[in-house]
TrEMBL record, chain A:
It holds the Pfam family IBB. GO terms for cellular component: cytoplasm. Residues 1-53 form the IBB domain. Belongs to the importin alpha family. Residues 1-33 are annotated as: Disordered. This is Importin subunit alpha. It comes from Ridgeia piscesae. The keyword Zinc does not apply.
UniProtKB/TrEMBL annotation, chain B:
This is C2H2-type domain-containing protein. Residues 175-195, 240-259 are annotated as: Disordered. InterPro entries: ZNF511, Znf_C2H2_type. Residues 71-94, 98-119 form the C2H2-type domain. Residues 245-254 have a biased composition (Basic residues). PROSITE patterns: ZINC_FINGER_C2H2_1 (PS00028).
Length: 484, 285
């Protein structure tokens, strides 16, 4: 048997190595899929994108026809732009053909505007490929893309913006080349366009430029991007998509923490609040708009001390957040709780939270999935540390009763948060002890005394020693006195 | 402090490290947008955004097809059937047009630069004393003493291509514009240049003072990075392919020659093909 096997070309692989290879392939596929889900490039499809099979041979033929048959360029470009949406293989085939790219660029810079637009659309879809595809575009057509951004030709500007946005998503090298080409200034200028689709695309391009290294945001801010962006933070039923895109840019800028002053000066906070309140009222489930707005607010409020107080000068903000806690989308609940946890760091706001009647929702969410639990716990801890009055309210709302079972949770962060919460309640409100013990607090703590994580162990022990044992000793003494 | 998914390993041998301040202090957390905390939201939003589709008709907004009308600009006879098609053409071809030399530019900024540098008498005077050639990138405020220096800056600093078509001498660009439909796909995007314009390309190193207003200012040197065909290095030693350098000028070798009308006009009326030579040839056999 073995002699026959050795006559085969490939050494037969052992089962183990085959399995290993399969596993790696599976991992690579999953990783690629996940990257695709998270990538911020956008393919521009037409409604006519059919299910026709496109072959590589067809793409190559189209490339040569592009140079040789000028009359059929229109349909060839339409065919090519569809082909590019179907994957990098076709883009590679296209770029591999001699002169294909240069022909495309000459059409792009030519005098037939219809063909120009189709060529630009092709470039948009090429840019959704790999980094080297985007670099190829920049090398051949980068300067023209930037020039046409100031052309005043709406549809062309729009298409060039898509291309720039997709290129910018391809990593630092592309981003730096775009910056060198001088892309930021025209992008900012286009935010003032009359056409809302152009504004939307410009914001898309800017948001991809702002991502990546933390210094990227600086270029935008230095080019004066913030005021025109803030100008679009208004509620308009028909322009929600523009609002979403603009909020994304601001969300990226606020996440870095370096542009607090510029953002606040431009009045971002106030406008953000009013628009958030409006959207929460009229479109509470439109997560496309709500997600960037929430993230922007959450990160802005991490800044200077009184930012949250400023934010909550608008009395409708906290109730709006309360509405969002009931969202049908998990991540909105989670992110809204995070925002809440950031603003409850300030004592005055906690009172607003209580007044708005949100506490019960927060406590309820303590029973939800692990990541939502955690965020709720952060908020409660922040509220509880502001003194006795707060803790009394929390106690009355039943927060402690829900928190104690969390001591048995297997997520370590949750346990530590719960421990902290219990500690706060016990420290601030004498009445908590009884409730604590009734809810099974003692067992919970004792279960943690030998926890694998040292910090949990020591926390548990500290609570026991500070509150439980003294109490137990007191009770024991009283019993003695009684019996004596 | 970023939020972490999943559990962290306990460090049994090290002293207790609290994740959170103990006793608790009000905690604010700034989280980056690509943190795993936001992953769920990111995926959802991306999925929704990626389904952006544009129907063909959206591009032709004012799609009411009128009866064909033609462009009103003098000399242009393009025809259109939609308003937006005409608008686009007008913006691209006629809005930023130089009145002196009728070249068209894609943006008003490039037109301004052109007007200043080519049709402003003061420019040459000032350029002699200070750096007047401004960078073509609007956000870059640098100025240069010569057009070549500016071009080098564009290439090095701003990664422009060497053959950027809106930074060329007049004749080459004009040819490109008009002959677009017949553009060859060579790397330099140059089209066959008829012989009469060749002389204007010989300005490398020349500083001819021309009186024609349409000639580029004398101190502007053409910076064609592909050597023009008429320039020869050395003593004019015969080199292969010297005449054409791979680019055809006019007829192919087998089309030229004593073949009468058929040489210059390849469109043949089949009725009038002279068959005399065929007749004589047949007669001879």
């Amino acid at each position: 048997m073995d002699t026959r096997k050795s006559q085969y070309k490939h050494k037969p692989e052992s089962v183990k190595s085959l399995r290993e290879r399969r596993r790696k392939q599976g991992e690579a596929l999953r990783k690629a899929k996940r990257e695709k889900l998270l990538s911020s490039k956008r393919i521009r499809q037409t409604s006519l994108t059919g299910v026709d099979e496109i072959t590589e041979l067809q793409v190559k033929e189209a490339c040569s026809a592009l140079t040789k048959k000028p009359e059929s360029r229109g349909e060839l470009l339409i065919f090519l732009k569809k082909a590019f949406t179907q994957g990098s293989a076709f883009i590679d085939a296209f770029l591999g053909e001699e002169n294909a790219m240069t022909t495309l660029v000459s059409i792009f810079t030519g005098s037939d505007e219809k063909l120009q637009l189709e060529a630009a659309w092709c470039l948009t879809n090429i840019a959704t490929g790999a980094e080297e595809h985007a670099l190829s575009i920049l090398k051949h057509a980068g300067a023209y893309l930037i020039t046409f951004l100031s052309s005043g030709n709406g549809p062309l500007e729009d298409q060039c913006l898509w291309t720039v946005g997709n290129i910018a998503a391809n990593g630092d090298k592309c981003h730096d080349m775009l910056k060198d080409l001088g892309v930021v200034a025209p992008l900012v200028k286009l935010l003032g366009s009359e056409t809302s689709s152009v504004v939307q695309s410009a914001a898309f391009a800017l948001s991809n430029m702002a991502r990546g290294a933390p210094t990227h945001g600086k270029e935008l801010v230095d080019s004066g991007a913030i005021p025109p962006l803030v100008k679009h933070l208004v509620y308009d039923e028909d322009k929600l998509k523009v609002l979403a895109e603009v909020s994304w840019v601001l969300a990226y800028l606020s996440a870095s923490g370096d542009y607090e002053d510029a953002l606040l000066e431009a009045g971002t906070l106030e406008k953000l609040n009013s628009v958030l309140i409006q959207v929460a009222k009229d479109h509470p489930n439109d997560f496309e708009v709500l997600t960037p707005l929430l993230r922007c607010l959450g990160n802005i409020c991490c800044g200077l001390r009184d930012v949250s107080a400023r934010a909550c000068k608008n009395k409708d903000l906290v109730p709006a957040l309360g509405t969002l806690l009931q969202s049908e989308h998990r991540h909105i609940k989670k992110e809204c709780l995070w925002v809440l946890s950031n603003i409850t760091a300030e004592p005055d706001i906690c009172q607003q939270v209580i007044d708005a009647g949100i506490l019960s929702s927060v406590i309820e969410l303590l029973k939800s999935a692990f990541d939502i639990k955690r965020q709720a716990a952060y908020s409660l801890c922040n509220i509880a540390c502001h003194g006795e009055a707060m803790c009394t309210v929390l106690l009355n709302k039943g927060a402690l009763q829900v928190a104690v079972p969390l001591l048995k949770n297997h997520d370590q962060d949750t346990v530590e948060l719960a421990l902290n919460f219990c500690h706060l309640m016990l420290s601030n409100d004498k009445k908590s002890l009884e409730v604590f013990l009734d809810s099974g607090g003692l067992e919970g703590l004792e279960g943690l005394e030998y926890h694998s994580a040292e910090n949990i162990q020591s926390l548990a022990k500290q609570i026991l020693e500070t509150f439980i044992y003294p109490e137990q000793e007191k009770e024991a003494k009283e019993k003695e006195n009684v019996s004596a | 402090m970023d939020d972490m998914d999943g559990m962290c390993d306990g460090n049994e041998s090290e002293p207790a490290v609290m994740r959170f301040p103990f006793p608790w202090k009000p905690l604010q957390r700034r989280i980056a947008l690509d943190d795993p905390f936001f992953e769920e939201g990111n995926i959802l939003c991306n999925l929704r955004l990626k389904q952006i589709s544009v129907s063909e008709s959206e591009l032709e907004e004012l799609v009411t097809p009128y009866e064909e009308f033609s462009c009103q600009f003098s000399g242009c006879n393009r025809a259109f059937s939609t308003v937006v098609g005409y608008e686009m053409h007008y913006n691209a071809a006629h809005r930023n047009v130089c009145r002196e030399c009728s070249r068209s530019f894609p943006t008003s900024h490039l037109l301004d630069v052109h007007l200043t540098e080519w049709h402003d008498a003061m420019f040459q005077v000032l350029a002699a004393r200070q750096n007047m050639y401004q960078c073509l990138v609007e956000s870059c405020l640098e100025k240069f003493a010569t057009a070549k220096k500016r071009k080098d800056h564009l290439i090095q600093q701003h990664k422009y291509p060497a053959n950027f078509r809106f930074n060329r001498t007049k004749t080459v660009a004009r040819k490109n514009k008009i002959d677009h439909s017949q553009a060859q796909t060579s790397d330099s995007m140059e089209v066959d240049v008829p012989t009469e314009n060749l002389s204007s390309r010989l300005t490398v190193g020349d500083k001819t003072m021309d009186t024609l207003p349409s000639q580029p200012p004398s101190s502007t040197r053409t910076f064609i990075y592909k050597v023009p065909r008429s320039i020869q290095f050395g003593q004019g030693a015969q080199r292969g392919f010297q005449h054409n350098r791979g680019q055809r000028r006019g007829k192919h070798w087998h089309q030229s020659g004593a073949q009468g009308d058929m040489a210059t006009n390849s469109m043949v009326n089949i009725e009038h093909v002279p068959m005399d030579d065929l007749v004589t040839a047949l007669d001879e056999t």
